[in-house]
């Protein structure tokens, strides 16, 4: 009986697109202006600081015109990418949004990617690099409410604000939802339904009106990428068919690809896998193995269990990171979450679940169910 071929294992960091921060044009963007603010926001979590710095320089530093240029630069430098795609042309054909300044930030679930989303959104506005930011996520009122509450808390933190240069401290930034029309100097936190169901909300028709560009940050972007199909020579996009959640995810990618005023886009995820393939446009990689080594997976500290906004305001940034908003629950031995942790916690996790005999529906169920923050 012939042996099954072994699953190919990739070192995810070797396939991450490194942003050359030395190419930053300081006349366009100077991260040093907000460095103290970012340090105060992230505390001891250096990886969050690194993700914010790299993302902001990529978006606003002028070193790259689009994702294609960044990818071509990395193909020439990284043997691992060359061995995976063979030719530069083939690699570039596998980029989801090659003509935009786009990419994905991978941070292991539980390491606080919402801190990074906030910093990129808020600082892009106060530094007057963007007038409008859309934080787009899957249909979940719980996720949206959680992000709005966290963003508001950060924006009202006087200690954080004091770390900004005086010229940035009084920039009025508002947080709005689908009940209010889009406006300048606002962060809109919504899902794809609010964008497409324009007749049912105030944000849809006004999102791109009277503006040249909207910065889009996609939370849980693996939902969108799950409808991309890798072949040996190309990247195929599924249509907008389907029903329910599947249709929403396809519309999400259609929205990103077809709206010309989305010139910059960053996705965030804890599972940077498209079926059997690692994302080709990852800008930053902080894996479960990295978090375990740094002991940075969100800790469960029962002393800090709280549901009070007033008590949260009295906590340090590091303590707030450990807050438990709801009673903890045990993870059963056979749960999808435990299986995902077991699968992904090695430094070089297998990217070929198909060879393990996992059907597509089961693979998607495993990853989509693992969404703890």
Give a concise summary.
With 373 residues, the protein is α/β, with parallel strands linked by helices. The protein has 16 helices and 11 strands.
Structure description:
With 373 residues, the protein is an alpha/beta fold. The chain has a single domain, classed as P-loop containing nucleotide triphosphate hydrolases (Rossmann fold, 3-Layer(aba) Sandwich), CATH 3.40.50.300. Helix content is 38%, strand content 13%. It has helices at 35-42, 46-60, 67-77, 79-85, 88-93, 113-126, 141-155, 158-161, 192-196, 222-225, 244-258, 288-294, 309-313, 317-321, 336-344, 360-369; strands at residues 101-107, 132-137, 174-176, 186-191, 215-219, 228-230, 235-237, 264-269, 273-274, 277-278, 282-286. A 7-stranded parallel β-sheet has the order 3-4-2-5-8-1-11. Helix 1 (35-42) runs antiparallel to helix 2, helix 2 runs parallel beside helix 6 and helix 15 crosses helix 16 (360-369). The relative contact order is 0.16.
Give the key terms.
single chain, 373 residues, alpha/beta, Rossmann fold, 7-stranded parallel sheet, disordered N terminus, disordered C terminus
Would you spell out the secondary-structure blueprint of this structure?
Layout: H1 35-42, H2 46-60, H3 67-77, H4 79-85, H5 88-93, E1 101-107, H6 113-126, E2 132-137, H7 141-155, H8 158-161, E3 174-176, E4 186-191, H9 192-196, E5 215-219, H10 222-225, E6 228-230, E7 235-237, H11 244-258, E8 264-269, E9 273-274, E10 277-278, E11 282-286, H12 288-294, H13 309-313, H14 317-321, H15 336-344, H16 360-369
Parallel strand pairs: 1-8, 1-11, 2-4, 2-5, 3-4, 5-8
Antiparallel strand pairs: 6-7, 9-10
Helix pairs in contact: 1-2, 2-6, 15-16
